[in-house]
Every structure is written in structure tokens, then in C-alpha cells.
Amino acid sequence: MAWEQAEGVVRLPDGAVLRGRGVRVRPVGAPLPDWSLLLLGTRPDDVDWPHWWLRWQDFSVPSDRAAARAAFAEAHRRALAGELVEVACAGGLGRTGTAIACIAQFAGVSAREAVRWTRQHYDPRAIETPWQRRYIRHFTAGATR
Fold first, then answer.
1. Where do the H-state alpha helices sit in the chain?
2. How many other C-beta atoms lie within 10 A of the C-beta of residue 57?
3. What tens digit of pLDDT does each residue of 61-74 get?
4. CA dihedral 120, 100, 125, 1 (to 10 degrees)
5. Interacting residues of 7 by C-beta distance below 8 A, sequence separation 6+
6. Main-chain dihedrals φ then ψ at residue 139, nearest 5 degrees
7. How do residues 42-93 score in pLDDT, each as one tens digit?
8. Cβ within 8 Å of residue 5, ≥6 positions away
9. Cβ 101 vs Cβ 138: under 8 Å
């Protein structure tokens, strides 16, 4: 089963499809994901499907950049293989938008265009802080600070 073209669903330039959302609200009528990348400050305790929890404080960047790169690569790999992949943080904008912008770079979006691309294809309010934008710009170089 594929994601319907609904709120939060993004098609990357290489054809991979994923859904971004805030964990506070579960989508009504949508299938559960096959796998989730959860971007939260504390470990979630109510997830009944395969997932990767990446410790990430609100309005910040990932605390473990190597783990973030591995998690983003895994999300891209699974989405490209046709799995129902979601990327989620509390509100679905800052951390989720930042992750989508990084995942989009695996799919061919340039680091320079990743913020604009994510806001155009996911949510105009995505990516909330200057340090999230900087993280995205430096992501493909592996030179995030």
C-alpha cells in the first residue's frame, strides 16, 4: 500500500515518498507507517511499529550528527524501496523539516536549495531556526557544526 497524496506526503526527486508529521496528532484514516524516524528529546513509549528514535531537542539540531546521518540514509533507503516511511517530531515543522531537507539531499536536492525545496514541497513553515538552516547547508559536506 502506498501513501495517499495527503497532508505531509512528499515525493523526493528520485521517486522516494515519505510523510512528515507531528506526533501529537495521528492522521485519521491513513495507514500506519512501515517504519518511522522519530525526532524527539525523549524516547517515545507508545510506538508499536518499527522505528528509529533520534534524540533531538526542540528548536535545535541532532545531538549525535553521525547517528542523524545514518538515520536519514536509512529513511531514504526504505522510502526508495517503497516502504511507508514517516519522519516525525512533536510539531512536524522544525526537526521534521530539517530531516526532510537532509533526506532530500540523498535524493539529489542540493544543500543550497534544500531549505527552499522542503518549504515548497512539504510545508512553508518547515525549518524553524538559523542553526537548522546552517545544519542543512553543511549536511552533504559532513561539515555540520
1. 65-80, 94-106, 114-121, 130-139
2. 13
3. 998 999 999 999 99
4. 80
5. 21, 27
6. -60, -50
7. 999 888 899 999 999 999 999 899 999 999 999 999 999 999 999 999 999 9
8. none
9. no
- C-alpha cell of residue 143: 561539515
The grid coordinates listed for 24 are 501529537
Residue 144 has pLDDT above 90, yes or no: no
Question: What is the torsion angle, in degrees rounded to the nearest 10, for the CA atoms of residue 137, residue 140, residue 84 and residue 129?
Answer: -20
Those residues with Cβ within 8 angstroms of residue 89's Cβ, 6 or more apart along the chain or in another chain: 22, 23, 38, 39, 40, 56, 58, 95, 96, 99
